[in-house]
Specification:
single chain, mainly alpha, about 75% helix, globular
Length: about 425
């Protein structure tokens, strides 16, 4: 089979260039608003770092979440995994970029304008005056925080390297033993993924409110990353499938499979989120309940309601339809909605953390919405530029995979059904 058959179309390069320009402009907007229009109690640098954190967690979920799906499809097989393998691999190769983009968060640990900081445990003065922070300082301190991040990216980077290396070797040699090698490595890889993502979620998100904790928090972030990555893959497939050489390759059969997986992720995310809420609300402990009091009073309660409606109820109802799951454009629209709601969910998680000194109702500041949305769009644009660049480096189908011919035959049969 000729490798040129599945070469990425020239339009992918143009999409990447536009995404970069848009991303840089949006990130500049987030920085300008943060520094020119700071909130009364949040200095400009801290406001920008908070917005950047939302964007960073979102984009990291796309790359690292794709790594989980890549290993899962190696373990389970199936046509659905084969058709998205190359986009997944391209997404995982953005992990070095994500490691580089972590630098601003590392810098934020040492920036405390006006006595404020992104992570209050990074401020020695606040730690000295807070018994709980002193008790946690062995774990929550700037140096160990950065060391742990290096470990996370090292683990993700090693898994990404070998999965991509072996896949390229399979294309060249067609050796069936490589398939078993990737399958065997994926099982411990998924265990390492779960462990590292759980700790990364605790470090980057949960430690924003160091007096609060949840044993389900890591699972919520993990499923959210998987949901984001899967939604992106659906969108990418509809873009690639709209023109040659991939037109007709992504059959309704595979969109149906991806739609069922998306439905499962929507349900799983809702289950974990509701479980956390139910346990904390019923426990009614003073160190836990303020987390939800800050998010379910004032205008934030309407943001929470929008998550219930558009992050769960609407996509759940639509994805129950077999016809919707087999219709590429309809499924793409749901996937776009899910990506947008993932950003809203991260804003809902991170923005109210700045008001943790009180459980009273807090308003939604326009700076929060604008800077966080702009930063998310900006970093996503930069990430897309790098992703599209990686997507053009290899054929869009794994040419050495032994099951490729069978997958193409099934696609053809599905198209004529």
């Amino acid at each position: 089979m000729d490798a040129k058959t599945y070469t990425a179309p020239p339009s992918i390069g143009r999409y990447g260039s536009r995404a970069l320009v848009f991303g840089v402009a949006a990130l500049a907007l987030a920085a300008a608003v943060s520094f020119l229009f700071p909130q009364e109690h949040i200095p400009g640098p801290v406001q920008f770092f908070r917005a950047y954190l939302v964007a960073y967690i979102f984009c990291t979920g796309l790359g690292v979440g794709s790594l989980a799906w890549l290993m899962l499809q190696h373990m389970t097989g199936g046509g659905w995994g084969l058709v998205i393998r190359r986009p997944l691999e391209a997404a995982t190769r953005t992990i070095p970029l994500l490691a580089l983009l972590f630098i601003p968060l590392a810098v934020s640990l040492f920036v405390h304008p006006g006595g404020e900081s992104l992570y209050e445990w990074s401020d020695a003065a606040k730690v000295a005056g807070d018994e709980a922070l002193r008790h946690k300082s062995a774990y929550l301190n700037p140096v160990f925080f950065i060391v742990r991040a290096v470990i996370y990216f090292a683990v993700w980077g090693v898994m990404m390297y070998f999965m991509n290396k072996w896949s390229a070797e399979q294309d060249k040699t067609g050796d069936p033993r490589i398939r078993r090698l990737m399958q065997d490595a994926s099982a411990p890889g998924l265990l390492l993924f779960g462990l590292t993502v759980t700790f990364a979620a605790m470090d980057w998100g949960m430690s924003l409110e160091p007096h609060w904790f949840s044993t389900i928090y890591g699972l919520i972030i993990m499923v959210g990353w998987g949901l984001s990555a899967l939604a992106l893959m659906i969108i990418v497939l509809t873009v690639l499938g709209a023109e040659e050489p991939m037109e007709g390759v992504y059959a309704p059969l595979y969109f149906h499979d991806l739609g069922k997986l998306l439905l499962a992720m929507v349900m799983l995310f809702a289950y974990f989120s509701f479980s956390q809420f139910l346990i904390i609300w019923s426990g009614n402990l003073p160190e836990e309940i303020p987390y939800y009091l800050r998010r379910l009073r004032g205008w934030w309660q309407y943001v929470g309601l929008s998550l219930i409606l558009f992050h769960f109820a609407l996509p759940f109802a639509m994805l129950l339809s077999r016809g919707v799951k087999r219709h590429a454009r309809a499924l793409r629209n749901i996937a776009i909605l899910m990506l947008l709601m993932r950003v809203v969910d991260l804003i809902f998680i991170i923005a109210p953390a700045a008001y943790q000194d009180t459980a009273e109702p807090t308003g939604i500041h326009w700076q929060d919405l604008l800077t966080m949305s702009a930063a998310a769009a900006g970093l996503f644009g930069i990430w897309l530029w790098y992703f599209f660049g990686q997507l053009t480096k290899r054929p869009l189908m794994p040419l050495g995979a032994p099951e490729l011919e069978k997958t193409m035959e099934a696609a053809a049969a599905s198209a004529h059904h």
